[in-house]
Write a structure and sequence with these properties.
The complex is a heterodimer of chains A (553) and B (156). Chain A has 553 residues and is mainly α. Chain A has 18 helices and no strands. Chain A has helices at 7-38, 50-82, 87-112, 130-160, 168-199, 208-241, 249-263, 279-291, 293-313, 321-324, 331-354, 359-362, 366-373, 376-396, 402-431, 447-450, 460-486, 517-541. By secondary structure, chain B is α+β, with helices and mostly antiparallel strands. Helix content of chain B is 17%, strand content 38%. Chain B is built from one helix and ten strands. In chain B, the strands form two sheets. In chain B, strands 1, 2, 3, 5 and 8 form a five-stranded mixed sheet that branches. The longest helix of chain B is centred in the N-terminal third of the chain and has 26 residues, at 5-30. Bound molecules: protoporphyrin IX containing FE (HEM) and copper (II) ion (2 copies). Residues 28, 31-32, 34-35, 54, 57-58, 61-62, 65-66, 119-120, 369, 372-373, 376-377, 381, 436-438, 467, 470-471, 474 of chain A line the site of protoporphyrin IX containing FE.
């Protein structure tokens, strides 16, 4: 059945997605400026500063674009698979939306006015305007209100369908929200008890090491909050697009549960080179970090199994014949396939980053920038692009025209090329020692630093070429978003409606305990307690005198 | 729960490599003492210049084969700004900050230390090659972050 979701729910979802793309527009423009500043091709007017732009880039893309887009996608999928929202769910969702919008606006204003050039990680004792932290806290609170209203919708469904397992999309949504709520606890505690009182001057000093650890308790699962919705598209949407089914309902659910467990108690792998945490605890969290490889391997297996089974059904023969039978001309599929392909080097790089001693080689170099542009910047972002192509027409009731499909192809191909250039040069520059988060610098003509400006690939200029292609691609995407919102012809018949692809998934053999959330929440908190209690107590009990705030920008 | 036969093989292969890999990392960390920089000593960030050893930063010989380098990082430089150490001897770097978070990073070496106010970070390193090494800050620390650097001379 090619049914479209309820009109009011469409409006709700579309509002989220459009705010997300507004952030994307400004954020990628900042990215363009960055690549040119770093190779000394442009100089900023003196009322604008590199680090101000970089703060905006990080906040708008990593926090705002992702969060708004994700909720737009989850809302549409929940309405699609569990039915139209009730008035309560919808009302609370709107409240959440407006809280996030107000928070984002506050934060953005403090960044633009130059009172918050602290980057999106806002490490103390750099001290931004208190409203910067209040704004971020509002975004989180808004996302919780939204998250809980989606869980409310799920509970209503469960009550009406006793003893049934929820549809896979809804299950995965709930898993994502549980992960998000538990992850945010760290940053909410840091904001309420550390940053806000300190920034408004109610307390003098801040415990720096504790604030960093609370940030990274949040910071790593944040990555999985971006990734899980992309995985939802990979598990549930892609099989439908290629004409297949979900490989295994039980394994899909099991992998999501494992992602909740192993993505939270691991934040120390971002703090491997800093003092204040015993080596033992760093190593323990490194081990827990690597556990995430198990659900990742399960995911890779399931996806390729679906591809192969479907390709063979369509007549693909031999070892790899099925591969050619995949719908390569369908941009909804090809976009996500490219996204998956980027995740292979992305994941491999992640293994290096988290490898305890090896981390020293790359920590805070351009390598890391290359790494997250081929994890969040492409696998996640390009999956979101692939979703956008059909989701916006679905939400606006317009057609997905041939010309838009063509443009969409150009958009994803240029993004892939631009990213290949930019991220390759960033990885190599990092290995050569070029630092991240740094405006143009030659370190007084030091020979080592000069090398960063004259390789073929290992060059800030290559990075700028890649970045420019990326920016053009981003603008093309914005064009597609606008056209499919307001200009594409309306779908008039049932057949013209753009569908929300949801693959069939058979829960017949799926064990019930997978949907007993209390088990997983319990284990999750147990793991967090094991990994964090002692080192955090230590940071509090043996804290040095705290730090006062600094505005060094 | 049903696992496909190939999936079992795939997952067992994955888990075995995981165990092997983590064992290598663990053994080299704890048996061969290959840790990233760290340390549990704390200091009052407002009294750094009065607290030993930071009241007298610089290079000090500890014994025949070991030297200590005490460094203070601040926006936007290092104190002392010029140092000289011998190649082939173990150098113990000790760093802290008087203001915000910085790093003490020697390009082309494994010395890449976060410098956190209130904490003392420590790293042992032996230079094999003499020469002049670039030291830079790779943790954002403010408007002058990109000029925060110095050099270390390593002599025979
Ligand atoms: C037009 C496309 C883009 C370009 C040209 C671009 C360029 C850059 C560059 C050059 C940096 C490093 C700056 C530095 O360390 O000095 C950077 C940082 C970053 N980028 Fe992008 N980027 C783009 C798109 C994206 C997207 C789509 C995302 C995520 C959804 C993203 C997330 C980030 C993050 C989180 C940082 C780190 C910010 C920080 O260090 O505080 N970027 N980007
Ligand atoms: Cu991480
Ligand atoms: Cu710095």
């Amino acid at each position: 059945m090619n049914s479209i979701i309820d009109k009011q729910d469409r409006k709700l979802a579309l509002s989220h997605i459009l705010v997300g793309y507004f952030a994307f527009l400004i954020g990628t423009f900042c990215g363009l400026l960055q690549v040119f500043i770093r190779n000394d091709a442009i100089e900023l007017p003196n009322w604008l500063d590199y680090y101000q732009i970089l703060t905006a880039h990080g906040v708008l893309l990593a926090l705002v674009f992702t969060t708004f887009f994700i909720f737009g996608f989850l809302i549409s999928g929940m309405s699609k698979t569990l039915g139209t929202f009730g008035p309560k769910t919808r009302g609370f969702s709107w409240i959440g939306f407006y809280l996030m919008v107000i928070g984002t606006t506050m934060t953005t204003v403090t960044i633009i006015s130059g009172q918050a050039s602290v980057l999106y990680t806002f490490y103390a004792p750099l001290q931004a305007s208190g409203w910067f932290y209040v704004g971020l806290a509002l975004v989180i609170v808004g996302s919780w209100v939204l998250g809980f209203s989606l869980i409310g919708h799920y509970i209503v469904w469960k009550k009406a369908h006793k003893k049934q397992l929820s549809p896979l999309f809804a299950f995965m949504t709930v898993a994502t929200i549980i992960l998000w709520v538990i992850a945010c606890l760290g940053i909410v505690v840091a904001a309420l008890f550390q940053f806000i009182p300190w920034a408004f001057g109610w307390v003098e000093t801040i415990n720096v090491e504790l604030s960093r650890s609370l940030f990274w308790y949040f910071g790593h699962p944040l990555v999985y909050f971006w990734l899980l919705p992309a995985y939802m598209a990979w598990y549930v949407v892609v099989p439908k697009i290629i004409g297949g089914k979900v490989f295994s309902d039980a394994l899909a659910r099991l992998s999501f549960v494992l992602f909740i467990l192993f993505s939270i108690p691991v934040g120390f792998h971002h703090q491997l080179t800093e003092p204040g945490i015993e080596s033992f605890w760093k190593f323990l969290q490194v081990v827990l970090t690597f556990m995430v490889i198990i659900p990742s391997l399960m995911t890779a297996f399931s996806l390729f199994a679906t591809f192969e089974i479907t390709g063979r059904k369509k007549g693909g023969r031999g070892l790899f014949g099925w591969f050619t039978k995949l719908p390569w001309r369908d941009v909804r599929f090809t976009s996500i396939f490219i996204a998956m392909a980027f995740f292979i080097p992305g994941g491999a790089g992640g293994i290096i980053n988290a490898s305890f001693q090896m981390n020293e080689v790359i920590h805070n170099t351009m390598w890391v920038v290359g790494h997250f542009h081929i994890t969040v910047g492409t696998p996640v972002a390009m999956t979101f692009m692939g979703i956008t192509f059909w989701l916006i027409p679905h939400l606006t009731g317009r057609k997905l025209t041939k010309s838009i499909k063509k443009l969409a192809f150009i958009q994803i191909i240029t993004w892939a090329i631009g990213m290949l250039l930019m991220s390759t040069s960033q990885h190599i520059l990092g290995l050569l020692g070029a630092p991240r988060r740094t405006s143009y610098t030659g370190y007084n003509g030091n020979n080592v630093a000069l090398e960063w400006f004259d390789g073929i690939l290992s060059n800030h200029v290559t990075m700028a070429i890649g970045g420019s292609i990326l920016f053009l691609s981003a603008m093309l995407l914005i064009y597609i978003v606008v056209i499919t919102c307001v200009a594409s012809p309306k779908a008039t018949t049932e057949a013209e409606l753009v569908e929300f692809p949801i693959a069939e998934s058979d829960p017949g053999a799926t064990p019930r305990f997978l949907e007993n959330w209390w088990i997983w929440i319990g284990i999750c908190f147990a793991l967090i307690a094991i990994a964090y209690t002692i080192p955090i107590m230590d940071m509090i009990q043996h804290a040095p005198p705290g730090s006062t705030g600094f505005q060094t920008w | 729960m049903h696992f496909h036969r190939f999936e079992k093989i795939w997952l067992i292969f994955g888990m075995v490599s995981l165990i092997v890999f983590l064992s290598i990392v663990g053994v080299s960390a704890f048996a061969m003492d290959q840790h990233p920089s760290g340390g549990m000593d704390t200091i009052d960030p407002e009294k750094v210049e009065e607290t030993p050893p930071f009241d007298d930063p610089g290079v000090r010989q500890i014994d025949e084969d070991t030297y200590e380098v005490v460094m203070i990082a601040m926006a936007f430089g290092y104190e002392p700004s010029q140092i000289e150490v011998p190649a082939g001897k173990e150098i113990v770097f000790k760093v802290t900050s008087t203001d915000v978070t910085h790093s003490f990073t020697i390009v082309d070496t494994k010395v890449n230390m976060m410098v956190i106010p209130g904490q003392i970070n420590e790293k042992r390193y032996t230079f094999d090659e003499p020469g002049e090494y670039l030291v830079l800050c790779n943790e954002y620390c403010g408007a002058g972050h990109h000029v925060m650097s110095t050099t270390i001379k390593v002599v025979e």
